[in-house]
């Protein structure tokens, strides 16, 4: 079953057919989502009523396009706001973690590393409810003690940001650590010999070397934050990010506006995904 | 040796990770456990006890949903492995260079897209007025529209679709590292395709199989979107039950107990998988 060992033509043909069928299975749902964004009908289903761009640019009911649908535009803004914070925080903490794990040896390092990986194996829903329960009890205690209101600890954007940050940081740490491990410390020593300060050497030599990994993990963090559903669902308040808004609309019965948003999302995520791969491949 | 400045630097690096892990991971889970063992006896009055867990075991709907979720997840994992292995083998062993990169990318693209969009795609395909129902009618295979959503098969299709990448990627990585000459040697020594698969390829791919299975099982168990949207109201998925207790019923104590049980099952499977294959969490997760 390798190219150098001949196989019967029939077996080969079957194998190819299976692989083709698999890729059709992969492509099918995304293709129909994209195609029905252009259907001139109020339901995203057959029959095909003709081609239209109304679900993108339309202004008259029921054909209100994405770009004129307030709820969706607002939730895209909310998602972008959350994603920026999550990505910034995750990359900052991830970079610190990378330096800690690659450059320092200390007691309990193995244990700390394992704890750092834990968020990967905690289901998103559980992560969400545990943060919800904890922050609510902290808020209750504080409110009882001080008589003030602590709305930041109630479901809302701050909790959404913290919840997503709590597991996306692990990915950022892994990506940045992998890059830092490949760094040749003698470069930094050379800078120190030439009179650079410790921090100056890190800023001018090490951080530029890490930049591709930092950018790649920032892009992946934005992508993961935009798409996160499980953790967000439990922590969301009145401002809902895009996935939550779409989920609510989907439960009510969908119009092709959702297809149009999905098409835009597919294009943006494919572009961001390619970007992160490009940055990571520049490592070599 | 250790200077004061590097000491300070060390503590500055240690602070963020400790803050993150303690405030957002460890304390919340301890809090979750404490809430799960408290019983409401009056408005804002609680007592410690295991009533919530007892409720889980005495109410058949609860533990049956739990068991159902676990069994369906195991099934989804097995299906993903069976469907994904030939694909991974094809990509790793039967293609080269540019074709290989392209096929690999084609596998990845659907997974950069939000799970919501993917599930929406399946809804358009499977529903009564959907594409597949219409296609079958057009071909004359069925007489009237047929509803393919809102059953277990639809959930399974969605779960496999959502998680197959996490099986294919580790499998491609481990199969890539298998030297072709080992397979050739197997054939030279008179092995058949089946025996070579069983004695050379699968043992070599074992670490990848284990990581893939662990991740897929975890993702299926903790999935909310796919079972709820493709399975409809009667999907009976445990995460759906947790959501109901928390958001609809506002019974946080019972919801926390449910959450803890799900977490326990998920961790148990992860550690059993790692023990069986004698791997550590560090290497398994580092791979994906």
Task: Give a quick set of tags describing it.
heterodimer; A: 284 residues; mainly alpha; MetI-like fold; two-stranded antiparallel ribbon; globular; B: 288 residues; 13 helices; 78% helix
Question: How many strand elements of chain B?
Answer: 2
**pLDDT average of chain A, as an integer?**
84
What's the average pLDDT of chain B? 84
Euclidean distance between termini CA atoms of chain B: 38 Å
Unreliable parts of chain B: none
Number of strands of chain A: 2
What does this structure look like?
The complex is a heterodimer of chains A (284) and B (288). Chain A is globular. In chain A, a hairpin with a 2-residue loop joins strand 1 (59-60) and strand 2 (63-64). The longest helix of chain A is centred in the N-terminal third of the chain and has 34 residues, at 70-103. Chain A contains 11 helices and 2 strands. The model of chain A has no long low-confidence stretch (mean pLDDT 84). Chain A folds into 2 domains: 1-68 and 254-267, no CATH class; 71-252, MetI-like (MetI-like fold), CATH 1.10.3720. By secondary structure, chain A is mostly helical. In chain A, strands 1-2 form a two-stranded antiparallel sheet. In chain A, helix 7 runs antiparallel to helix 8. Chain B is mainly alpha-helical and 288 residues long. Chain B has a single domain (60-287), classed as Orthogonal Bundle (MetI-like fold), CATH 1.10.3720.10. In chain B, 78% of the residues lie in helices and 3% in strands. Chain B is built from 13 helices and 2 strands; from the N terminus they run αββαααααααααααα. Chain B has a two-stranded antiparallel sheet with strand order 1-2. Chain B is globular, with a radius of gyration of 24 Å. The interface between A and B is large, with 87 and 84 residues.
């Amino acid at each position: 079953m390798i190219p150098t060992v001949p196989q019967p033509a029939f077996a080969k043909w079957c194998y190819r057919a299976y692989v083709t069928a698999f890729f059709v299975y992969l492509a099918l749902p995304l293709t129909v989502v994209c195609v029905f964004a252009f259907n001139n009908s109020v339901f995203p289903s057959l029959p095909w009523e003709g081609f239209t761009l109304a679900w993108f640019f339309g202004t008259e009911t029921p054909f209100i396009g994405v770009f004129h649908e307030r709820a969706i535009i607002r939730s895209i803004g909310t998602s972008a706001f959350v994603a920026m914070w999550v990505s910034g925080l995750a990359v900052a903490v991830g970079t610190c973690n990378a330096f800690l794990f690659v450059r320092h040896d200390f007691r309990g390092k193995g244990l700390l590393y394992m704890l750092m990986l834990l968020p990967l194996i905690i289901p998103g829903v559980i992560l969400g409810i545990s943060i919800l329960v904890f922050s609510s009890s902290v808020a209750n205690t504080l409110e009882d003690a001080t008589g003030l209101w602590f709305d930041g600890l109630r479901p809302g954007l701050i909790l959404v940001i913290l919840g997503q940050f709590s597991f996306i940081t692990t990915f950022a740490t892994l990506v940045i650590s992998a890059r830092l491990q490949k760094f040749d410390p003698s470069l930094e020593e050379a800078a120190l010999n030439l009179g650079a300060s410790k921090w100056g050497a890190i800023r001018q030599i090490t951080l530029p070397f890490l930049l591709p990994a930092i950018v790649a993990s920032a892009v992946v963090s934005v992508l993961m934050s935009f798409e996160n559903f499980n953790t967000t669902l439990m922590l969301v308040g009145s401002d809902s990010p895009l996935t939550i808004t779409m989920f609510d609309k989907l439960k009510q019965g969908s119009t092709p506006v959702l297809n149009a948003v999905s098409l835009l999302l597919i294009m943006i995520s494919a572009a961001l995904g390619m970007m992160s791969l490009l940055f990571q491949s520049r490592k070599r | 040796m250790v200077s004061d400045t590097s000491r300070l630097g060390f503590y500055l690096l240690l602070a963020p990770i400790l803050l993150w892990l303690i405030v957002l991971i460890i304390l919340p889970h301890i809090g979750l456990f404490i809430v799960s063992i408290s019983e409401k006896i009056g408005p804002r009055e609680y007592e410690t006890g295991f009533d919530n867990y007892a409720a889980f075991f005495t109410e058949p709907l609860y533990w049956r949903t739990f068991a159902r979720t676990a069994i369906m997840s195991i099934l989804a994992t097995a299906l993903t492995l069976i469907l994904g292995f030939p694909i991974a083998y094809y990509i790793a062993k039967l293609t080269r260079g540019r074709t290989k990169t392209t096929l690999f990318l084609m596998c990845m693209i659907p997974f950069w897209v939000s799970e919501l969009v993917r599930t929406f795609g399946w809804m358009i395909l499977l529903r009564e007025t959907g594409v597949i129902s219409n296609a079958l009618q057009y071909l004359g295979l069925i007489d009237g529209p047929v509803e393919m959503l809102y059953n277990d098969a639809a959930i399974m299709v969605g779960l496999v679709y959502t998680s197959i990448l996490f099986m294919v990627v580790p499998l491609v990585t481990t199969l890539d590292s298998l030297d072709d000459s080992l397979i050739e040697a197997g054939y030279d020594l008179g092995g058949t395709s089946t025996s070579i698969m069983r004695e050379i390829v699968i043992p070599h791919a074992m670490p990848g199989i284990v990581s893939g299975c662990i991740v897929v099982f975890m993702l299926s168990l903790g999935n909310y979107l796919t079972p709820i949207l493709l399975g409809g109201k009667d999907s009976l998925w445990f995460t759906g039950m947790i959501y109901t207790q928390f958001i609809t019923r506002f019974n946080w104590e019972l919801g926390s107990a449910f959450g803890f049980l799900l977490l326990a099952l998920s961790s148990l499977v992860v550690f059993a998988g790692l023990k069986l294959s004698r791997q550590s969490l560090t290497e398994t997760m580092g791979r994906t």
